[in-house]
Every structure is written in C-alpha cells, then in structure tokens.
Amino acid sequence: MKDRTRLEMWSPVRWVALLVKLILPLRTFQVRMLDSGEADTWRYAAGNWMLNPSRLAQGSERRPLQQGIFRRSDPLAAGKPVAAVLYINTNKTADITKSGHEKGYVLPWPFGGPVHQDVFHWLEKLRAWQEKYNPVMGRTPWTELDGRHIQAKSQVQLAGYPDACFLFRMPEARDGRRHLPLTADTLDTQWFRLLEALELRLADRNETHQNGMPIRFLPAPDVRAKSSSRGYRVTLFPLHSLRVSLVTALALEGLVPFPVLQKLVGHSRLLMTLYYTKPGASHIRDVLLGAAERLEATKEASIQNFLLDTEHDELLQKAICNSVPSLAAAIPQHPAARNPAGWMPMHHGLCLVGGNTSEVEGNGAVGGCYNGGPNVGSLSTPKYGPVPGGSRNCVRCRWFVTEPHYLPALTGHFNTLAYHFDEARNACLARENELQDLKKEKADAEDTGQPFTRLDACRQTERVWERALKRFSDLAEDLVACWRLIERCKAAMEAPLGSGTQLVAAGTAGDVHIAFEETESELLQLAGVCENVEIYPDLEPGKAVFRRSQLLDAVLYRDDLPPVFMLLSEQEQLLAGNAFMRRLAQQMNPGNPALGQRQVIGLMDGGARLSEHFDIDPAALLPATNPVLAVMRGYQTFSGSEA
C-alpha cells in the first residue's frame, strides 16, 4: 500500500507449474521441487552459458555446483553437443539409496517449437520473474519442509537432499515462507479451472463424442450442484493422469522405444514404464488390425522361409499338409538344395509344384493337379489320381502345405465351401423330390396297368439328381478336408515351443478356437462370403453376390427406394454391397462393427424399414461407385396424381 494505492500483481508460478506438467512426463512432486539454479556456478540464458554473476553463486569452474533445472550437457556422454538438458532433482524410490547431488536424473528434451511448447523458454522466464519479484537470500535446506510440501520424512532423510533454490516458490506466502515450494494440493484448483474452461470451449464449438454425448472432464453439473463445499475441485481426470497420458502417447503414438522412455521418465525398472503405458480399446483394435495386415502381407515370405530353412525331419513333423510322403518328395533334404522358384503362394497356403494344372507329356513325374489326389495304385508302385473336386481344389491336394498364418484365409475358404455345400444340398433335395414324384407316378401307372409316358423325363431327372448328389458329396469332403487343416493350424498355435513357452501369449486355448455356427439367416452367410471374396479374390462366390444383391434391393424397396444393386455388374455389386453393409454396421454399433452387422442383418431378416432405425436416409449410405447410384440419390416417389 503506497499513497493509498494498492498494487496487485498476478503470480505466474502455479500456471507455469501446470504448463510444465502438460509438457514434461514428470510427477507433480518433481515439478514442485525443481531447483531454479540461481546458486549454480554456470547460468543458462537464451541458449548460452556464462558464469553466474549472482551473489548466490557457489562452486568453481573446476568443481561447479549444478543443482538447477538447466544443466550443461556432456558431449562425451550425449554423443552430440546440445545447449542444455534438464535436471530433475528428485526421483522417488530411485533416490532412496542416494544422497546429495547423486539424487535425481538428467532429462534430455528438445528445444524450440511453438512458444507454448518450449519448456526451456517458460522455465527461464519464471526464474527471471522470481529473481526480480521474489528473490531469496540463499539456498533452502529441505529440513524446513513439512507435511504440506513432502510426505513425512525424518530429519536425516531430509538432510540427504542438497539445499535448493526452489523454482516454484510462492511470493504470496506469509509468515516468512516465500522461499518454500508449492504445497501438495496447490495445483488442484488450477487443474480444475483449466478443465472447466476446456469443457466449456468444446461445448461452444459443438464438439462431442461420436454418439453425440458431451465431452466431460468434470462431474456433471447436477453432481457439482449437490456439493456443499465451496472449494469443490473434483475432476474426472486427476492431475497425475497427465504423466500416464504423456508416457502412453510417447510410447504408442511417438513410438519411443521403451528403454529410452524408461530413462526419460526416470523409472528404475522397465516394468514400471510398461505399467504406465495404458493403451485404450480403440488403439488396441487399430494395432491388432495393423498386425493382421502385416501378417497378411508377409505370410507368403513366412511360409517360404519355413520350408527353406527348417531341418528336413523337423519339417516333416511340423508342416501342415495332406501328405507327408509327398512333402518329403517335393522338399530336398538339404536346405541348400531347396529352390522356392518352383513354389506358388496361394491365398490359403502354398503349392509345392508351382500351381501346375496340366500334365507334361512324356514326364509323369512332374507334380500337379492331375496327380495330386489319392494313390490309386499299390504301395510298391504308387500311381496318384487327380485332385478330387477338380483343379485347384488345394485343400484336398497332396502338394498343398499351409501354416497358422493362413487361418483367416482358411476360415474364409471354409465359409465359402459351406455356402456352396448348402446350395448343393438344396439342389440335391429339390432333384430328389422331383425324382420321387416321377417314381410315384410310374408306380401308380404300373398298378393301373397303364403305360408310363414320362420315362425319358424320369431318366433325365435321375441323372440330374445323381450329378447333384455327386457335387454334394464332393463338397462335404472338401469341407472336412478344410476343417482338418484349420484344426491342425490351431493345434500348431497351441503347441509348446522347444523352450516350453506357448505361441498363444495370453488368454486360454479357447481364445483361438474356431467353432461351427449354425444360422438360419441366409443374408448373414452371404455377407460373410462376399466379405471374404473381396479380401481373397481366389475364392469362387458362385451365386452369392447376385443373391445378396436381391436381398439388399428388397431392403431398399421396403424404404420406398428403387432397386440399385441389380443394375450393377457383378464386381460392382460385390464392392458396393460390402461397403453398404460396413456403413450400416458402423452406424448401428460404432464401437463393435462386427456385432453391428449382425444387428443390421437381424433387422433386415425381420422385414424392418432401415429408415425407422437410423437417423439418416439409407440411400446416403450407398457408395457412389456407378452413375446409377448417383442418379438414385435424387430419386423421389410420386403419388398417382403427381405422376
């Protein structure tokens, strides 16, 4: 108070401390206890070092005092000269066995960038502010700290810390405590105000979660209103969560190696760094999808390396194939004699004879689809027939080999076979009913002594039925053969390695089990087949694409929309139908699109109108892959008078 004029000054201490928390992965206690370096021998200023001119300076050039936040880097240790590194003078449990200047650790941190992210800039400005408006007479012993500043420690433990010029000291403190650091709960109010302002700013910009719910950092207003406390400072995210978030971001998004991150955050054990890394569900899902894509991209090289490098005896034991003797004949015993040029990668495995479908004249020893079947000769003079089911029916071929990487492709192949199996069964039953009706007519005619005039039709129907029955039988055997390969892949994944460890790193064996699912939904089966055909073009969809298009056009018709898919080519129907189903599934259940697709198909099978369950026009979910779809966007229905 001077001349009845009261001068008020804003203190930046709390807010700079909070900013440091936002930038650096430090504990709140570490930030509060930082040393300003006002008594250090060397002084950092604007990227340069000079001898400290302050009256508080201690040490000498030969034995400098360096306890401040800014520390000169050692070119021999750092490998590359930098202006300065940060020195964190406390480090929790890692300091227990240390004393004096041995406590704490060095934190290299990048310079520059936007001013609000440049921690060196703000630490230097705060030090200058403290020197001008809240100077200290000397370094402060830690024995002056009490329970408000630090957890209860004995005087001997406190004396183990070197005296400090605390950077975050409070100039507004009374009773001669202006030289002491921030107390433990000082930043809680600033953190609450910051989150409150951020929540209001997001609300003003109409930024919400994907489901439309407001983004909350604080308890709901009605919960806060019930609190009788004037100093209500409860947040949904405690201040310490900043450290967890920064460690997680550096590890998962910044891809900082964990050993480097361990040094960065001052952990004495790598396990603590792993504990602090908290990936969210969406990140885990994205990582797994990326891993699946990488496995898909490298699976061909993986199986080739396995066949090239594995010892012959071990190869015969571990390889997943239909005929071990054929594998032994196709793979030379010595790895150096093996040549992958004659192998052909398939979508679900590898063909050891290069995908050869035609017999070479005069050389029946060359393998291919024509001799990939069972032995029709004797054990002493074997002679192999063609692959059952025709060329490229690899799941029943003795030249085919696969491994667990191909499980998704094998599953897709199995589902496609199951669709053809169902179609063949239905055709077989239909032909059998026709044949039984004709046989009944023939029996009735013979009983009455009348001539049976439809004998040719009966013979023709019997031939068609036998052909349908043969196809049905072949597909049944294909299904069994494919399932056996899937089961062997699962067994290989669950088998222990030589060290006794499991290939399945977490969970139970049931986590990798594949089971039959009997469904009454034709559309659910068709959707799975069409998705697999887009991923694995080798699969033969048959009539699946056209049949699904019929069902989807019926769904559009229920919403007074014209049929769209029937006007497209088969490839366009496949891609547009898959995209349409994916968008509907995403709208139905953003968190679990796979479950969302089942829910959408349930609505379609129940005859529901999609417009009654979605806030948007179903036509807007159709991808514009064809001019027909673009025209359909503007389609309108007219009443009789308007037409």
UniProtKB/TrEMBL annotation:
Pfam families: Integrase_2 (PF13009). GO terms for molecular function: DNA binding. Keywords: Coiled coil, DNA recombination. One of its GO terms (biological process) is DNA integration. The keyword Disulfide bond does not apply. Residues 421-448 form a coiled coil. InterPro entries: DNA_brk_join_enz (IPR011010), Integrase-like_cat_sf (IPR013762), Putative_integrase (IPR024965). This is Phage integrase. It comes from Paraburkholderia steynii. The lineage of its organism: Bacteria, Pseudomonadati, Pseudomonadota, Betaproteobacteria, Burkholderiales.
